[in-house]
Design a protein that fits this description.
- The chain is α/β, with parallel strands linked by helices.
- It is 29% helix and 18% strand.
- It is built from eight helices and eleven strands.
- A hairpin with a 2-residue loop joins strand 4 and strand 5.
- The longest helix is centred in the C-terminal third of the chain and has 20 residues.
- It binds S-adenosylmethionine (SAM).
Amino acid sequence: MVKTAARKKVASPSFSLERLSRKELSALARAGGGSLYYRSADGKFVLFQGDSIRILEEIKRRGIQPNLVFADPPYHLSNGGISCQSGKMVSVDKGKWDTSNGPEEDHEFVLRWLGASLSVLEENGAIWISGTHHIIFSVGFALQKLGAKILNTVVWEKLAPPPHLACRYYTHSHEFVLWARKTEKSKHVFHYAFEKEQNGGKQQKDVWPPRNGVGDEQSFPNHWRIGAPKKAEKILGKHPTQKPIELLDRIIRCSTNPGDLVLDPFCGSGTTGIAAVPNGCNFIGIDLDEQFLKLTKSRYAALMENMKDSLY
Ligand SMILES: C[S@@+](CC[C@H](N)C(=O)[O-])C[C@H]1O[C@@H](n2cnc3c(N)ncnc32)[C@H](O)[C@@H]1O
């Protein structure tokens, strides 16, 4: 799994999350119209239930400054369409949170959550955002409007994309993952030497092909190949748009230092937190839905149990 030893222990000006008491976190959540769903016993893993834009405003007010934000926002895909799963026609509707209100309102929403996310980041902080063509161009434009500097538009190629039922255009087989730093001048973290070493001494590319994907074995060593979440990752329950741990592990490993604070404003099943903890990072997750936070909490408990087991 993760080679944390290879990530340099650089002193980041990270906020000490564990110093915030349950009472203080609850007050923060209440002021943002939500609630504190969970705080781990060591205070390093915190979940808020509520609207991320309002809770981020309170996080900012209290001077909590994450080093990294990962956002897997609504792609606004759930509008009565169909897709294909295991050879069967299925609805693409993921839930009310994923419906579109038209391009203007959807873009307005992007500007609001992205603005709130960038505003909490520490000065040298960075953000990663996943998305398909449905939102990624809006996100890219918003990043520029909000003064962030786009570093890469990573292409994550998918292992087994669903076939296109109407046969009127190409199969959608990738997602973009945009990487940006807070401002033009921020000094973002990137473990370049480690990444290069992992790639047999060659610079890593911004195209992340899947395991068993097309391409030559030599030029795409294993850790670049990222398929859909494995069965084991869904054993405690499923989220309709769950991301693979491997994708988040890669993102966190290359752009944080141990001890950093990672925040996910669209936590879902908590994949970001589950990848952050083994990389030595603290975590704040926010989601509207209690069921998803419950799943995150179960995954965190299972992770801690496994990590404890691996000590013996
Ligand atoms: C694309 S999913 C994230 C999935 C996650 N990356 C995972 O691996 O499980 C987006 C999540 O954002 C949540 N959400 C949507 N709008 C929100 C808002 N305004 N504030 C907080 N959470 C929101 C949804 O409930 C959903 O779980």
